[in-house]
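Lab manual, section 2.4: Encoding a predicted structure.

Procedure: take the sequence of the chain (123 residues), apply the prediction step described in section 2.3, and record the output as structure tokens. A sample record is shown.
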Amino acid sequence: MTLHKLASFTALKLPEVTVTQPFGAGCDVFKVLDKVFMLSFHLECKAAINLKVEPDHGVMLRDIYPYIRAGWHMNKQHWISVYEDENLDESLVQDLIRNSYDLVVSKLKKVERQRMALLRKMH
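Recorded output:
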């Protein structure tokens, strides 16, 4: 499965996810309750996604995986870019997407977090 298909498939299974293109065609922005947790785009003819991460986790991921770099056009400490690669670990990408989603949900208001927890149990 291509990176973008895998990313979209994984993200759209999560509760309350919407996709918009505020930057135009070619850049899908995935949000949970209007908060961005993933961007999907092409850079230098390569498929890529941006994901939110804990800063220490991002450093470790960039050190281990050559296809993970500092977030393109984002805060380099809190975002990573994952590029299409023949050695791409699909389960890692799915975990990173869910982690990005969870990080954003964790910053929502308490009542929104509680609602999201209930919705997550139903899925």
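Check your result against the sample. The helical segments are 3-12, 55-64, 90-106, 110-122.
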